[in-house]
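Researcher: I'd like a structural prediction for the single chain below. Treat it as a standalone chain; there are no partners to consider.
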Amino acid sequence: MKNKLTSQQNTANVNTSLFVWIHHQDNMDWEVLSELYRIAPLGEKSAKHLETVFSNSMFKCFVYSNSRLVGAGRALADGGDCSYICDIVVHPEFQGIKLGKAIVEKLVALSEGYKKIILYANPGKEGFYQKLGFRRMNTAMAIFANNTQAVELGLISENKMQQ
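Model: Treating it as a single chain, here is the predicted structure.
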């Protein structure tokens, strides 16, 4: 079933009133959210893992269309210094209508007043986030559970820094 948004809406900002926005996880079906990440496609994220990470996030967005989960995102935040936006996902049938942009913008708004709002983009998606005001960090560092895979995916560089 294709969404009912018109092509005019596809080229403008998404009309957020067409969706139900939930900012808590009461009654969340974690299996449905796990499936959404799988079909997006953003990889395999177990329902239990998603329940844990969303439960530990200060800000969260779950977006519904006709009672169907079509988008989500979250932000880890410490109360004033740093908010880290992550796990933005949009159902394939709703991609291209700026729903992902709306989710990021909502999480940024919820993070207003923080000294820094951080996210890391999947390779090739940096331009999307730049249009939303994010800038490349020159000093960001990361340790991944699977560094080899992170290098293969282009998330980190294999190059060692000079001291």
